[in-house]
Amino acid sequence: MAMRVIGIDAGSKEKLVRDCGAEHFIDVTKHDDKSITEEVVKTAGGLGASAVIVCTASNKAYAQAIDMVRFGGTVVCAGIPEGTPEPIATASPGKLIMQGVTIASVAVGNRRDAIEVMDFAARGVVNTFLRTEKMEKLTEVFQDLKEGKLSGRVVIDMQ
Q1: Per-residue pLDDT tens for 9-27?
Q2: Is 137 in contact with 143 (CB distance < 8 Å)?
């Protein structure tokens, strides 16, 4: 497969996204709904992405993903949308059928998936970005999360 990773996030996360392996980066804050979709399609050779993995908790991102995939493409639902559950706005049956779009979901992996992921990590294919903070800093961690300043994950040291 000659797939390439296109990372989409706020500009402040570009280094993290590229360090995670993205070959291309699109700053979501510099686009509206239409232009971000056009940028993904253009970056993916004019046909659209083979797959879009939605990791965010944004219902809007799910709605955009349908238009980002090429004919026969797949939208993978990985992030759990925030707030009141709502259907994917652009996922009308006619559109999905005419474009041959598949929608898949991922909740947790199995033993084989875990072994493969550990192999990725052992070979250095996957980079993890985390920091450890004491319980006393929990309020600051949540503030960083709220302000979009958090890159990667934070592990809270309970000791």
Answers
A1: 988 889 888 888 889 999 9
A2: no
